[in-house]
Task: inverse folding
Protein backbone atom coordinates (compact mmCIF):
# COMPACT_ATOMS: atom_id res chain seq x y z
CA UNK A 1 0.00 0.00 0.00
CA UNK A 2 1.38 3.42 -1.00
CA UNK A 3 -0.34 5.23 1.86
CA UNK A 4 2.28 4.35 4.52
CA UNK A 5 5.13 5.16 2.17
CA UNK A 6 3.59 8.55 1.40
CA UNK A 7 3.03 9.27 5.09
CA UNK A 8 6.62 8.30 5.96
CA UNK A 9 7.94 10.46 3.14
CA UNK A 10 5.83 13.36 4.37
CA UNK A 11 7.43 13.04 7.84
CA UNK A 12 10.91 12.70 6.32
CA UNK A 13 10.24 16.00 4.55
CA UNK A 14 9.50 17.59 7.95
CA UNK A 15 5.73 17.42 7.45
CA UNK A 16 3.29 16.96 10.31
CA UNK A 17 0.86 14.08 10.61
CA UNK A 18 -2.80 15.10 10.89
CA UNK A 19 -5.02 13.67 13.62
CA UNK A 20 -6.95 11.52 11.11
CA UNK A 21 -3.70 10.15 9.66
CA UNK A 22 -2.40 9.27 13.13
CA UNK A 23 -5.65 7.42 13.84
CA UNK A 24 -5.38 5.56 10.54
CA UNK A 25 -1.93 4.26 11.62
CA UNK A 26 -3.48 2.84 14.78
CA UNK A 27 -6.24 1.28 12.67
CA UNK A 28 -3.83 -0.27 10.18
CA UNK A 29 -5.25 -3.61 8.93
CA UNK A 30 -3.26 -6.70 9.96
CA UNK A 31 -2.26 -7.46 6.36
CA UNK A 32 -0.59 -4.02 6.12
CA UNK A 33 1.40 -4.20 9.35
CA UNK A 34 4.68 -5.32 7.77
CA UNK A 35 4.45 -2.57 5.16
CA UNK A 36 3.72 -0.01 7.88
CA UNK A 37 6.71 -1.21 9.90
CA UNK A 38 8.96 -1.10 6.85
CA UNK A 39 7.98 2.48 6.00
CA UNK A 40 8.12 3.62 9.65
CA UNK A 41 11.65 2.21 9.85
CA UNK A 42 12.77 4.70 7.18
CA UNK A 43 12.06 7.48 9.70
CA UNK A 44 13.90 5.70 12.49
CA UNK A 45 16.84 5.03 10.16
CA UNK A 46 17.15 8.68 9.22
CA UNK A 47 17.27 9.92 12.83
CA UNK A 48 18.85 7.03 14.74
CA UNK A 49 20.20 4.57 12.19
CA UNK A 50 20.44 1.10 13.70
CA UNK A 51 21.86 2.39 16.96
CA UNK A 52 20.52 0.99 20.21
CA UNK A 53 21.39 2.56 23.55
CA UNK A 54 21.73 0.50 26.69
CA UNK A 55 20.39 1.82 29.99
CA UNK A 56 20.54 0.08 33.33
CA UNK A 57 17.96 0.67 36.05
CA UNK A 58 18.81 0.74 39.73
CA UNK A 59 15.60 0.28 41.69
CA UNK A 60 16.67 2.74 44.37
CA UNK A 61 13.48 2.62 46.45
CA UNK A 62 10.69 0.07 46.20
CA UNK A 63 7.05 0.13 47.32
CA UNK A 64 5.97 2.32 50.27
CA UNK A 65 4.09 4.67 47.93
CA UNK A 66 0.97 6.56 49.08
CA UNK A 67 -0.31 7.10 45.52
CA UNK A 68 -3.08 5.04 43.91
CA UNK A 69 -1.84 4.48 40.33
CA UNK A 70 -3.99 1.55 39.18
CA UNK A 71 -1.28 0.02 36.97
CA UNK A 72 1.48 0.00 39.59
CA UNK A 73 2.40 -2.88 41.89
CA UNK A 74 3.98 -0.39 44.30
CA UNK A 75 0.84 1.67 44.90
CA UNK A 76 -1.05 1.92 48.18
CA UNK A 77 -3.92 -0.12 46.67
CA UNK A 78 -1.82 -2.90 45.10
CA UNK A 79 -1.72 -6.33 46.69
CA UNK A 80 1.26 -7.66 44.73
CA UNK A 81 3.86 -9.39 46.91
CA UNK A 82 6.71 -7.01 46.13
CA UNK A 83 9.84 -6.25 48.08
CA UNK A 84 9.66 -2.87 49.86
CA UNK A 85 12.67 -0.85 50.95
CA UNK A 86 13.63 2.75 51.56
CA UNK A 87 16.06 4.77 49.41
CA UNK A 88 19.24 2.79 48.89
CA UNK A 89 22.29 4.34 50.50
CA UNK A 90 25.13 5.93 48.58
CA UNK A 91 27.28 2.80 48.74
CA UNK A 92 24.66 0.64 46.99
CA UNK A 93 23.86 3.29 44.37
CA UNK A 94 27.56 3.63 43.53
CA UNK A 95 27.95 -0.17 43.51
CA UNK A 96 25.19 -0.37 40.86
CA UNK A 97 27.02 2.22 38.75
CA UNK A 98 30.22 0.17 38.98
CA UNK A 99 28.29 -2.79 37.56
CA UNK A 100 26.83 -0.60 34.79
CA UNK A 101 30.31 0.64 33.89
CA UNK A 102 31.63 -2.91 33.76
CA UNK A 103 28.80 -3.92 31.42
CA UNK A 104 29.53 -0.97 29.12
CA UNK A 105 26.10 0.57 29.79
CA UNK A 106 25.62 4.13 28.50
CA UNK A 107 23.14 5.49 31.04
CA UNK A 108 22.62 4.53 34.66
CA UNK A 109 19.02 5.19 35.78
CA UNK A 110 18.25 5.77 39.45
CA UNK A 111 14.56 5.01 39.88
CA UNK A 112 12.58 5.43 43.09
CA UNK A 113 8.97 4.72 43.98
CA UNK A 114 6.84 7.39 45.64
CA UNK A 115 4.91 10.57 44.92
CA UNK A 116 8.11 12.59 44.97
CA UNK A 117 11.43 12.63 46.82
CA UNK A 118 11.96 14.12 50.27
CA UNK A 119 14.85 16.55 50.55
CA UNK A 120 16.76 13.86 52.45
CA UNK A 121 16.28 11.43 49.57
CA UNK A 122 17.49 14.06 47.12
CA UNK A 123 20.59 14.50 49.37
CA UNK A 124 21.28 10.76 49.12
CA UNK A 125 20.95 10.74 45.33
CA UNK A 126 23.04 13.91 44.98
CA UNK A 127 25.92 12.43 46.99
CA UNK A 128 25.84 9.20 45.01
CA UNK A 129 25.64 10.97 41.65
CA UNK A 130 28.67 13.14 42.43
CA UNK A 131 30.76 10.07 43.19
CA UNK A 132 29.46 8.13 40.16
CA UNK A 133 30.27 11.04 37.85
CA UNK A 134 33.78 11.39 39.28
CA UNK A 135 34.54 7.68 39.25
CA UNK A 136 32.77 6.25 36.21
CA UNK A 137 31.65 9.22 34.09
CA UNK A 138 28.38 7.50 33.24
CA UNK A 139 25.36 9.41 31.96
CA UNK A 140 22.78 9.51 34.71
CA UNK A 141 19.01 9.57 34.52
CA UNK A 142 16.92 10.04 37.65
CA UNK A 143 13.28 9.07 38.08
CA UNK A 144 12.12 10.12 41.53
CA UNK A 145 8.55 11.35 41.04
CA UNK A 146 7.12 14.86 41.32
CA UNK A 147 9.90 17.42 41.72
CA UNK A 148 10.19 20.86 43.26
CA UNK A 149 12.30 23.42 41.34
CA UNK A 150 15.03 23.55 44.02
CA UNK A 151 15.28 19.75 44.02
CA UNK A 152 15.65 19.74 40.24
CA UNK A 153 18.37 22.38 40.49
CA UNK A 154 20.32 20.28 42.99
CA UNK A 155 20.07 17.14 40.87
CA UNK A 156 21.26 19.02 37.80
CA UNK A 157 24.17 20.58 39.68
CA UNK A 158 25.21 17.15 41.00
CA UNK A 159 25.46 15.85 37.43
CA UNK A 160 22.10 14.25 36.60
CA UNK A 161 21.82 14.44 32.81
CA UNK A 162 18.25 13.34 32.29
CA UNK A 163 15.03 13.23 34.32
CA UNK A 164 12.30 10.70 33.59
CA UNK A 165 8.72 11.44 34.44
CA UNK A 166 6.11 9.82 32.21
CA UNK A 167 2.85 11.50 31.29
CA UNK A 168 1.58 7.89 31.26
CA UNK A 169 -1.65 8.59 29.39
CA UNK A 170 -3.72 11.38 27.86
CA UNK A 171 -4.97 14.36 29.87
CA UNK A 172 -8.58 13.20 29.53
CA UNK A 173 -7.88 9.58 30.56
CA UNK A 174 -5.57 10.39 33.47
CA UNK A 175 -8.20 10.46 36.23
CA UNK A 176 -9.16 6.89 35.24
CA UNK A 177 -5.70 5.58 36.18
CA UNK A 178 -5.03 7.61 39.33
CA UNK A 179 -6.79 10.18 41.50
CA UNK A 180 -3.98 10.95 43.93
CA UNK A 181 -2.20 13.33 41.56
CA UNK A 182 -3.17 15.05 38.32
CA UNK A 183 -1.99 15.09 34.74
CA UNK A 184 -1.00 18.72 35.29
CA UNK A 185 1.18 17.68 38.27
CA UNK A 186 3.06 15.42 35.88
CA UNK A 187 3.43 18.01 33.13
CA UNK A 188 4.63 20.50 35.73
CA UNK A 189 7.45 18.19 36.83
CA UNK A 190 8.58 17.62 33.24
CA UNK A 191 8.66 21.39 32.77
CA UNK A 192 10.59 21.89 36.03
CA UNK A 193 13.15 19.24 35.03
CA UNK A 194 13.58 20.83 31.63
CA UNK A 195 13.93 24.34 33.05
CA UNK A 196 16.65 23.12 35.41
CA UNK A 197 18.71 22.03 32.39
CA UNK A 198 18.12 18.28 32.67
CA UNK A 199 17.06 16.54 29.48
CA UNK A 200 13.37 15.59 29.77
CA UNK A 201 12.43 11.94 29.28
CA UNK A 202 8.71 11.27 29.26
CA UNK A 203 6.64 8.45 27.89
CA UNK A 204 3.43 6.52 28.13
CA UNK A 205 1.82 3.23 29.03
CA UNK A 206 -0.44 1.72 26.39
CA UNK A 207 -3.10 -0.80 27.42
CA UNK A 208 -4.96 0.96 30.23
CA UNK A 209 -8.39 0.99 28.55
CA UNK A 210 -7.62 4.20 26.69
CA UNK A 211 -9.19 4.96 23.28
CA UNK A 212 -7.14 5.28 20.10
CA UNK A 213 -7.70 9.04 20.22
CA UNK A 214 -6.03 9.06 23.67
CA UNK A 215 -2.93 7.49 22.11
CA UNK A 216 -2.82 10.20 19.47
CA UNK A 217 -3.32 12.84 22.17
CA UNK A 218 -0.38 11.40 24.16
CA UNK A 219 1.88 11.67 21.11
CA UNK A 220 0.74 15.26 20.51
CA UNK A 221 1.39 16.19 24.17
CA UNK A 222 4.90 14.70 24.11
CA UNK A 223 5.66 16.67 20.94
CA UNK A 224 4.49 19.86 22.65
CA UNK A 225 6.51 19.03 25.79
CA UNK A 226 9.54 18.47 23.55
CA UNK A 227 10.61 15.31 25.36
CA UNK A 228 14.10 14.17 24.29
CA UNK A 229 13.45 10.55 25.05
CA UNK A 230 10.08 8.75 24.93
CA UNK A 231 9.74 5.37 26.63
CA UNK A 232 6.72 3.42 25.40
CA UNK A 233 5.44 0.75 27.79
CA UNK A 234 2.76 -1.81 27.02
CA UNK A 235 0.55 -3.21 29.71
CA UNK A 236 -0.91 -6.62 29.03
CA UNK A 237 -3.69 -7.54 31.43
CA UNK A 238 -3.87 -11.18 32.44
CA UNK A 239 -7.47 -12.14 33.22
S1 LIG B 1 3.63 7.30 42.07
FE1 LIG B 1 5.02 5.86 41.05
S2 LIG B 1 5.49 4.29 42.57
FE2 LIG B 1 3.72 5.42 43.32
S3 LIG B 1 1.94 4.23 42.66
FE3 LIG B 1 2.31 5.80 41.07
S4 LIG B 1 3.68 4.82 39.57
FE4 LIG B 1 3.72 3.55 41.43
Result:
Amino acid sequence: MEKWKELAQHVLNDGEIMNSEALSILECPDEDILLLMHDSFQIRKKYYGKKVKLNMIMNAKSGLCPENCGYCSQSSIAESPIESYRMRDKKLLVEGAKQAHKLNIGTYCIVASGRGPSNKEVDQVVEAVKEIKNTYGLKICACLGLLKPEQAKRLKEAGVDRYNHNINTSASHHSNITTSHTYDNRVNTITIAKESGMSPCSGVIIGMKEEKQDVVDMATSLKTLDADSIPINFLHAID
